[in-house]
Specification:
Order of helices and strands: HHHHHHHHHHHH
Radius of gyration: 22 Å
Number of strands: 0
Number of helices: 12
Distance between the termini: 35 Å
Shape: globular
Largest sheet: none
Helix content: over 70%
Length: 324
């Protein structure tokens, strides 16, 4: 019959295409790229309230005392003033940013690893992992930085230390409006990359330390004779690597956030250079100024990095297994 003939002809046409798709996505670099995007979205959504609380605390100075309190009370204040939207404010932009950011980071790390291997498939030394991770961090942050600066603006635009009327709070600009306004009023394309230098200075060692520590701890947690550790041990390795990397590079993150809002009205920072910012923070806020927001940051590290690495490995392993 004609119907059965068409089915018989169309079936082989679809099958090779499906095989090609599965083969493409099962390639290690492509699988790592896709899994990185999934890992980024999952991890940022899990800890979005703590991430916003951290940013608000980083951007406070002596004249902004509204959030100088415990993490729990700060979250309660956010909920009381803005509700659920307040806890998740900026997360949409963060996910838009973090999916390509994480995808490029994990994908480029696997790409750079190929060139750093002494022989194909050989294990990398700690120094080579650090180098590959640093390059991956620079690559990913360069591609997605404009979304990062917009995410910071969205996170604080409704905080109570920003002088806004009730009417203004109800019509806060979104991601694209904020980006176009910055471009139009703050210096064009360069405005979208304000703070990129301290960001790169912090991201390169942060990502390098993160990858290096994770792979070292993961290897330590892998039982002898087995290829992979259990899911719980992967979670622990991710949490440890994130805590180590973020604590070591945290002052760069504070500088990054300060420069991202340096020209923003009602915030009060007018730093002329990186060294000017460092000297002013040290003089006015002391050593603690470089670690503002470290408590919510460390509280979010464990669930963020653990969920990131676990979702990354599960997604990557699923994609790689499609070639079987």
């Amino acid at each position: 019959m004609p119907g059965s003939d068409s089915q018989a002809v169309s079936k082989p046409d679809r099958s090779p295409a499906l095989i090609r798709v599965r083969k493409y996505f099962s390639q290690p670099v492509v699988a790592a790229f896709c899994a990185g995007g999934v890992a980024g979205a999952v991890s940022r959504t899990v800890v979005s309230p703590l991430e916003r609380q951290k940013i608000i605390m980083q951007l406070q100075n002596k004249s902004h005392a509204e959030y100088k309190t415990t993490v729990w009370k700060g979250l309660q204040k956010m909920w009381a003033e803005e509700g659920w939207r307040g806890l998740m404010r900026g997360n949409g932009t963060n996910c838009v940013r973090i999916v390509p950011y994480s995808a490029v980071q994990f994908g480029s790390y696997n790409f750079y690893k190929k060139f750093a291997e002494p022989t194909p498939g050989a294990d990398l030394s700690a120094l080579r992992r650090l180098l590959c991770g640093g390059l991956a961090g620079i690559t990913s942050v360069t591609f997605t930085y404009p979304l990062d600066i917009v995410r910071t603006r969205l996170s604080i635009q409704s905080a109570s230390f920003v002088a806004l009327t009730e009417a203004q709070r109800k019509v806060l600009p979104g991601m694209w409006t904020t980006m176009f306004t910055m471009y139009r009023t703050e210096g064009g394309f360069s405005a979208l990359y304000r703070g990129i230098i301290p960001t790169v200075a912090g991201v390169a060692p942060y990502v390098g330390l993160n990858f290096m520590t994770y792979e070292a701890v993961r290897t330590y947690f892998t039982p002898e004779g087995e290829k992979n550790p259990t899911a719980i041990r992967k979670l622990a390795a991710g949490a440890i690597s994130g805590a180590v990397a973020q604590t070591c590079t945290y002052p760069f993150d504070v500088l990054r956030r300060r420069f991202q809002v340096n020209t923003m009205a009602n915030v009060g920072y007018k730093y002329k250079s990186i060294w000017d910012a460092i000297s002013i923070i040290a003089r006015q806020e002391g050593f603690k100024g470089f670690y503002k927001g470290i408590v919510p940051n460390l509280l979010k590290v464990a669930p963020s990095m653990a969920s990131s690495w676990l979702s990354f490995e599960l997604t990557r392993d699923l994609l790689v297994s499609m070639q079987d």
